[in-house]
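Anyone up for a design puzzle?
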């Protein structure tokens, strides 16, 4: 009677454990902070360089000379110490790691809060701060308190115009922004095996928005299918009568397109009730919804038409971008008037390439709409790629079901 987290970490919930880290990754923002701490303790070298990844995604390309200098310093560190390095344009760290690098049953630690994304692959994946990452570099291990688990039981199937982002926003609203604090969210139920990998990545990505330590799917036939595309073997995981501290039922058939309204992720309203709110910008991308499947759904809505508001599209990875190019999806987006950015986080963190001005309103497929995040004094609504595309066509929030 164990949860997936207990199985992977090898101990009961509430127990403190030291565990070898199978994969550790950081980005250009957190990596330089970890290096400062690493240098302060004498730069003793990496315990396991092959497990360490440095991926440039947050301010990529650099937005000023100071950023460029810091990136150069971290780049030199990675190359000198034999860590895996991914240059600007490779994509968002979570997506890059999901492309054949993370395997079921692994302990994966990222220096970013949305590292829980990788639980979609049946791994225990969570985020830490810079000091913890520096400790992992030096020791190859970390300590964890094994979390309690919340069971999110999925049933039914999605209706037309409803996407996995709508499911994610709905469960965050049900749990609340602190309702899953330090818990592991396990996605189970009769509908769980039918969730495609891109949907699993979206659902696990937003676990932290409910305060959770991680989100996980059991590795199954869908996981095996996905990893086979990277020639990675998949060890299946079966539930062992897990005991949950809380259980929630999500009937996919009952859901509709929703938006998280400013300035809380857990406060949602149906898109149909928000229709008509004027927009200054639409953003499609991020580690939540910048995958090829997301871009393709948006392109199907926009193809043959023109957006009525500035619309920024940023692929989650180089692989996603190349697939969008070779399939014609990127061309359809550009012809519709969208601005394509290089693979990475884009304007999500409010650093560059799409920051909003005072009083502006944006619709975004990102995972956070906190006040001042993407521009001081601006407001952000969170939604699915289909809702974003439908809204871009009219310059105001619109229901995607009306254009499908």
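Challenge accepted. My sequence:
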């Amino acid at each position: 009677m164990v949860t997936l987290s207990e199985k992977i970490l090898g101990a009961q919930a509430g127990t403190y454990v030291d565990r070898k880290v199978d994969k550790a990754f950081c980005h250009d923002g957190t990596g330089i902070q970890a290096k400062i701490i690493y240098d302060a303790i004498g730069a003793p070298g990496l315990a396991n360089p092959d497990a360490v990844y440095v991926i440039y995604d947050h301010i990529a390309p650099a937005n000023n000379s100071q950023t460029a200098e810091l990136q150069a310093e971290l780049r030199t560190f990675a190359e000198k110490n034999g860590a895996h390095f991914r240059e600007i344009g490779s994509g968002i760290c979570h997506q890059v790691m999901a492309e054949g690098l993370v395997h079921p049953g692994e302990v994966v630690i990222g220096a970013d809060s949305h590292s829980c994304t990788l639980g979609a692959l049946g791994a225990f994946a969570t985020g830490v701060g810079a000091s913890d990452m520096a400790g992992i570099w030096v020791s190859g291990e970390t300590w964890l308190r094994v979390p309690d688990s919340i069971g999110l039981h999925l049933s039914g199937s999605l209706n037309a115009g409803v996407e996995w982002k709508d499911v994610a926003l709905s469960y965050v609203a049900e749990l609340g922004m602190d309702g899953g604090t330090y818990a592991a969210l396990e996605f189970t139920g009769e509908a769980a095996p039918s969730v495609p990998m891109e949907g699993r990545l979206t659902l696990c990505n937003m676990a932290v928005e409910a305060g959770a330590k991680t989100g996980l799917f059991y590795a199954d036939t869908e996981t095996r299918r996905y990893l086979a595309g990277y020639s990675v073997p998949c060890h299946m995981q079966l539930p062992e009568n897990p005991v949950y501290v809380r259980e929630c039922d999500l009937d996919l058939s009952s859901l509709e397109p929703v938006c998280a309204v400013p300035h809380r992720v857990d406060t949602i309203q149906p898109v149909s009730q928000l229709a008509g709110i004027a927009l200054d910008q639409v953003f499609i991308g991020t580690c939540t919804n910048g995958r090829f499947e997301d871009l393709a759904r948006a392109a199907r809505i926009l193809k043959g038409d023109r957006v009525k508001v500035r619309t920024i599209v940023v692929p989650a990875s180089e692989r996603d971008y190349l697939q969008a190019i070779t399939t014609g999806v990127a061309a359809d987006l550009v012809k519709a008037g969208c601005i394509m950015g290089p693979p990475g986080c884009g304007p999500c963190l409010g650093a560059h390439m799409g920051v909003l001005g005072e009083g502006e309103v944006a619709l975004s497929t990102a995972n956070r709409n906190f006040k001042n995040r993407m521009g001081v004094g601006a407001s952000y609504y969170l939604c699915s790629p289909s809702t974003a595309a439908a809204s871009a066509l009219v310059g105001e929030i619109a229901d995607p079901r009306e254009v499908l």
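A detail worth pointing out: The chain has a mean pLDDT of 97.
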